[in-house]
């Protein structure tokens, strides 16, 4: 299943609820979700970073899988905007821990 910016127009607790539903869906289906919300990105099993560049009048797209530390940095950037701080990094790490806890808990009962 592919969801392209399913998070349009939501944030906060509603975004967290959507993220948790996507996590549950991902336990039994392959889910690809394009998002700009850290609540949704943090619930993913894998986090891909997509970068669009223009080189010599051509648009080039680069896609790469983020490792754990890169995920923390990207989620912190999504949370904090222009400036990534120790606090936003800590919050990003907590979001990833919550996702893992939910995945284990829901996976056991699914």
Counted beta strands = 4
Largest sheet: 2 strands, parallel
Q: What is the N-to-C succession of helices and strands?
A: EHEHEEHH
**Per CATH, what is the topology?**
Rossmann fold
What count of structural domains? 1
Rg, Å, rounded: 15 Å
| Structural class designation | alpha+beta
Fraction of residues in helices?
40-55%
CATH class: Alpha Beta
The CATH homologous superfamily: P-loop containing nucleotide triphosphate hydrolases
Provide the spatial order of strands within the biggest beta sheet: 1-2
Strand proportion, as a percent range, falls in: 15-25%
Structural shape: globular
Which stretches of 5+ consecutive residues score pLDDT under 50? none
**Which CATH-level-2 architecture?**
3-Layer(aba) Sandwich
Mean pLDDT over the full residue set: 90
Distance between the termini: 19 Å
Number of helices: 4
